[in-house]
From TrEMBL:
Keywords: Metal-binding, Zinc, Zinc-finger. It comes from Brassica cretica (Mustard). PANTHER family: MUDR FAMILY TRANSPOSASE, POLYPROTEIN, PUTATIVE-RELATED. This is SWIM-type domain-containing protein. It holds the Pfam family SWIM. Residues 244-276 form the SWIM-type domain.
Length: 345
């Protein structure tokens, strides 16, 4: 059995589980079923950023006629870690130099840097470069993303599956009930956390504030020169050849991080510090404590008794193994364990 998970991020940059599905195989049909159900049951919001593996089945489903996972309903982006593994499987290189270059190209925030890595990839692996060049860069490279992915480049599978550790131990019905109770506990913890922050009068989450503090230490390494109309030039104190331009009017920096992560980069923070400007209005609302609180505000309705569950049609019912009276010791224990594999259909 496989467990499929769809997840988002909350304001504290923590994984926010949206939907789960148990399936025998992961195929084009299960992807279609899962993605369609998310649109029916979880969210009908337009303009979502969908980060997936670069897999032909997912691509086919997303681009099917009538799909609500293509533009303008959603913008598909690819997980960079998966893309790199796929690249190294298709174009093996024992020293992993080219895989490293693909990772660097995808993570760069500046287009010039991206172009330079692509040039290196072309020299080292012309076939690999051809394959990569066929994938639209805005779907896998941060430098070509317009801020839709908020700087999120990877699907963190560990974090996603951490919420359902007990799932593998008890199959089907039991697993689903356990998962539900774990979700409820996790939501309760995040809810009281967000309520605490709101009562303290915090505007942004602790993670955001910590990031600010850490970044402020590094921001002292720049010489800030005001230019015209809210633009500033920054030079590193000891490396004068490195220059960045921050434009506060449209919250951008030539380093690319400010607009792509929707969070002030080191250069913008240096400007705020020098000009005594409050940096908080330049942080996207999605990181605010208010958003954080709203995310976990809803209550969980209890799961009704199994007898009240609606019957599904066209799905086989699996009955538990019959436990024979004669079975003793280990055999009896094994049989009991098997009897837990009941599927409500
Ligand atoms: Zn910058």
């Amino acid at each position: 059995m496989k467990l499929m998970i769809a997840s988002g991020f909350d304001a504290a940059y923590k994984s926010f589980p949206l939907a789960f599905a148990v399936t025998k195989d992961v195929s084009i049909d299960s992807w279609r079923w899962f993605l369609t159900r998310i649109r029916e049951k979880v969210t009908q919001r337009k303009g979502l950023c969908l980060i997936t593996r670069h897999h032909p089945d997912i691509l086919a489903v997303v681009n099917e006629p009538g799909s609500q996972w293509k533009e303008p309903w959603a913008y598909q982006r690819f997980c960079l870690t998966h893309l790199c593994s796929q690249f190294s499987r298709l174009f093996p290189d024992h020293h992993h130099h080219t895989e490293y270059l693909v990772m660097q190209a995808g993570s760069s925030t500046q287009k010039a840097e991206f172009d330079s890595y692509m040039k290196d990839i072309k020299e080292k692996s012309p076939e690999g470069w051809k394959w990569l060049d066929r994938i639209p860069p805005h779907q896998w490279a941060l430098a070509h993303d317009s801020g839709l992915r908020y700087g999120v480049m990877m699907i963190d599978r560990k974090a996603l599956f951490a919420v359902c550790r007990s799932f593998q131990k008890v199959a089907m019905t039991g697993g689903v009930m356990l998962l539900f109770s774990e979700m409820k506990d996790a939501f309760d913890v995040s809810f009281s956390c967000s309520r605490g922050s709101l009562h303290r009068g915090d505007v942004y989450t602790e993670n955001v504030m910590r990031k600010f503090q850490e970044s402020l230490i590094g921001s002292g390494a720049y010489v800030v020169t005001p230019l015209e109309s809210d633009a500033f030039q920054l030079m590193e104190k000891y490396k004068e050849y490195k220059e960045c331009i921050v434009e506060l009017n449209d919250s951008t920096c030539t380093c690319g991080k400010f607009q792509r992560k929707r969070f002030p980069c080191l250069h913008a923070l240096a400007v705020f510090q020098k000009m005594k400007i409050n940096p908080l209005p330049y942080v996207d609302d999605c990181y605010s404590v208010e958003s954080y609180y709203k995310t976990y505000e809803a209550t969980f309705s209890p799961v009704p008794e199994m007898s009240a569950w609606p019957e599904a049609s066209g799905v086989p019912t699996l009955f538990p193994h019959v436990i024979l009276k004669k079975e003793k010791g280990k055999e009896k224990a094994k049989a009991k364990a098997r009897s837990l594999l009941v599927m409500k259909s």
